[in-house]
Amino acid sequence: MTTYVALLHSIVLGPGKRLVMADLKAMAADLGFGDPRTWVATGNLIFEADDAPIAAIESRLEAAFRARFGKHVDIILRTAQGWRRLAAQNPFPNGNGADIGIRVMRKPLRPDALARLGRIAAPGIGLALADGDLWIDFSGKPSETKLLSHLTTRKLGVGTLRNANTVNALAAMLD
Known about the structure:
Blueprint: E1 2-8, E2 12-14, E3 17-18, H1 21-30, E4 34-37, E5 44-49, H2 54-69, E6 75-79, H3 80-88, E7 100-105, H4 111-120, E8 126-130, E9 133-137, H5 153-156, E10 159-163, H6 164-173
Antiparallel strand pairs: 1-5, 1-6, 2-3, 4-5, 7-9, 7-10, 8-9
Helix pairs in contact: 3-6
């Protein structure tokens, strides 16, 4: 068995409707995944499953989500080992965990994306790539920067943003 971490891109099901984590865990259990658990209500899921290609499990989860909740949601998956590596690569270890975001990507970002975003970012915002995932030290409230509008699937590819506190909490749940 392999332990996986799944990140849902958006858990808003429609106007005023959010996904309940108990329902997400039930969906995973119905797929035959073991020990499904979540970290707060932010669309994160940890579970056990037979070893399989990441893309195959992502597809199964996305299809099950659409069937159960009536909406497509991109789901990005990492193995526990991959998640621990991701958490350990924080290039801003002294920053405020709530102000540090990571856009976890399905396909690694190329260095030219970092250069493009660097031209948009306000002074004081730190950017770094680690294994193709984008780390951002917003140095303040992420919602107060125009950079957020450039961190979209349309502009960067399939991925989802989490803060360093969530990344670390998920890593701790794996231990």
